Amino acid sequence: MNKVGFEYLDKKGETIFETFLKYTDEKEKSSIVLGKILKRLLNKERMTFLDIGAGNGEYLRLSLKQIKSLKRVKFTLLEPSSNLVKRLRLTAKNFPLNSTVKVVHSTFENFTTNCQFDVILASHLPFTRDRLPAVFGKMLKLLRLNGCLIVVERKKDDVHKFRIRFKSQLMGKECQALTIDDVVEVFDEFAKDKQLSILMFSVDSELHLPMADNMQDVISIIEFFLNKKWEEFPDNVRETVLDYVRQRKGILHQTDGFALVKKI
Ligand SMILES: C[S@@+](CC[C@H](N)C(=O)[O-])C[C@H]1O[C@@H](n2cnc3c(N)ncnc32)[C@H](O)[C@@H]1O
C-alpha cells in the first residue's frame, strides 16, 4: 500500500476511507461538536476557512449543517488524494449556498498561498510525530491573528491500540501512531515563545465491523488502519488480527480529541 498515506485506493467505486465511514458513527458524533465550535468561530461575514486533507468533504459539510443562518464564508478545501478529490468536488456543491468554495488538489506541504485564514481545520491527518513541528508551524503562519486552528486526532482509543499493536508486528519494530496528546505537546512547546491559547474537547463514537456480513469490508478497514495490503500480511498476523476483532465482536471504541489553538 502507499507510503505517504493519502493515495486512498478506490475499491468497488469507494475509497477505503469511505468503506470505514460506513461502519462508524464517528463523523456523525464528531460533526456535532465541530458544528458547535464553528458556530462560535464563524461569527462575521466573509471569514476565510482552510480545511487541510478535507477527504470527501462530508465531515465539514455535516458540521456546517448544524449551524442555522451561517454567515458567508470563503472555504478552501485542500485534498491530495486523486480519488477523494473527485468526491470532494461533488460534496462542495452541497456546501451552504451563500458561501464560496475552492477545491485545491495538493498536499499541505506543497500548498502555497498569499492568503491567511480565520479558521484552519486539520482533522485526522496522517502526519508522523517528527513532522508535527514543521507542519503545525506552517499552519500557524497561515493563521490570522485572533484566528483559530482546530486539530482533531484520536485519543488513546481502541483503534489507536489496534494500530500500535499490529503495526508493530507488521513492521517488526515499535510503532508510534499519532494522538491528540502528541499534538498538544507540540503546541505547548510553541506556546513558550508564541502567544497561543489552547482549549480541549473530546467526543466518543463506535466502529462496528461487519464480521458476520461482509469480511471483505472488514479486511479493507484493517488495511486502512494498518496501511498495508492484506496479501502482504504474514499468515500468523492475519489470524491474530482476526481473532482480536472477533473477541471484541467487531466493536472498537473511538474517541476524537479536539485541540483549539487560538493565535493571540
Ligand atoms: C483519515 S482522512 C480524514 C479526512 C477528513 N479530514 C476527516 O476528518 O473526515 C485523512 C486525509 O488526510 C489527507 N492527507 C494525507 N496526507 C496529506 C498531506 N500530506 N497533506 C494534506 N492532506 C493529506 C488524506 O488524503 C485524507 O483525505
Which spans of ≥5 residues are poorly predicted at pLDDT below 50? none
| Total helical elements | 9
Rg:
18 Å
CATH class: Alpha Beta
Residue fraction in strands: 25-35%
Q: Tell me the name of the CATH homologous superfamily.
A: Vaccinia Virus protein VP39
Strand tally is 9
CATH topology: Rossmann fold
Order of helices and strands: EEHHEHEHEEHEHHEHHE
Choose one word for the global shape: globular
Question: For the report, how would you describe the main beta sheet?
Answer: 7 strands, mixed
Main-sheet strand order equals: 5-4-3-6-7-9-8
CATH architecture: 3-Layer(aba) Sandwich
Bound molecules: S-adenosylmethionine
- State the end-to-end CA separation: 41 Å
Average pLDDT score: 93
Keywords for this entry:
single chain, 264 residues, alpha/beta, Rossmann fold, two-stranded antiparallel sheet, 9 helices, binds S-adenosylmethionine
